[in-house]
Each structure stands twice: as C-alpha cells, then as structure tokens.
From TrEMBL:
GO terms for molecular function: kinase activity. Residues 3-76 form the HPr kinase/phosphorylase C-terminal domain. This is HPr kinase/phosphatase C-terminal domain-containing protein. Coiled coil: none annotated. It comes from the Bacteria. Keywords: Kinase, Transferase. InterPro entries: Hpr_kin/Pase_C, P-loop_NTPase.
Length: 139
C-alpha cells in the first residue's frame, strides 16, 4: 500500500505524517529532522504489514529526498524501513485538551493517532511522544 504521506523515524520508532496537500507534512518532517529525527519517506510512503506491526518505507525513486517548497528537492540521509509507532493527521484539529485515545487503522492493524492541525510546537510534542509515549497509555 502506498499512502500520500511522509514518514520520519526517531529512536527507531516511525511517525506517519498525514494530511492534505499543503498541510505541512514536509515542513513537520523538516522540523523533526532538525531535532534529530531521520527521513523515511516524503510525500509517498510504502506500508506493509508484518504480523501485528506496520512497516513504513520509501519508494526507491524518492529515497533520501524531501521537497522544500520554494527551494526545491533536497537530499537527506535515508532511514528505514521502520515500524510505525504513531501517526499524526495535519488535516484535522484536536478539539479536546486531553483527548481520548485515537487510533488509525491500516492493513488490519492500528497505531495511535494524534490530530495535529494548527498545533504549535507539534514537532517537539511528537518527538517526546516517540521517545516516552503517553502517560495514560495502557501497557
């Protein structure tokens, strides 16, 4: 399965970045890369199931490349494949201060989902989520 999405990895944990065109998927990936994350895929992400896990990777044709609007296509050190640990949807705002557990279903499995449209400091928040998880997460 190929999704119109970007993906980064931090501490070996993958983040799938979803949203409509122009929502800031590559911008968020750049912000996270500036803080130590690695690029898995920009704009198109290949997903496959591995039992209960979802594995993300880049199509070979765009591996190690990321679009910087108004600048061009830039090189980045590629990373992956990586197991997805989290997804963020930049097309939907989170209405709750302390939201319920949301999940994104893909390929018969699911990952936690954060709604991120308009959220300031989103890159830092997601980096910390990848490192330590949610305090109220079961298991």
């Amino acid at each position: 399965m190929i999704l119109h999405a970007s993906c980064i990895a931090h501490w070996g944990r993958g983040l799938l970045i979803l949203g409509p065109s122009g929502a800031g998927k590559s911008t968020l990936a750049f912000e996270m890369m500036a803080n130590g994350a690695m690029l898995v895929a920009d704009d198109r992400t290949v997903l496959r199931s591995a039992g209960p896990r979802i594995i993300a990777d880049s199509p070979d044709t765009i591996r190690g490349r990321i679009e910087a609007r108004g600048v061009g296509i830039l090189h980045a050190q590629p990373y992956g494949p990586v197991e997805l640990a989290l997804a963020v949807d930049l097309g939907r705002p989170e209405p709750e201060r302390l939201p319920p557990h949301r999940r994104l279903d893909l390929l018969g499995s699911s990952v936690p989902l954060v709604l991120g449209s308009g959220r300031i400091h989103l890159a830092s928040i997601l980096m910390q989520y990848l490192v330590a998880g949610r305090a109220d997460t079961e298991g």
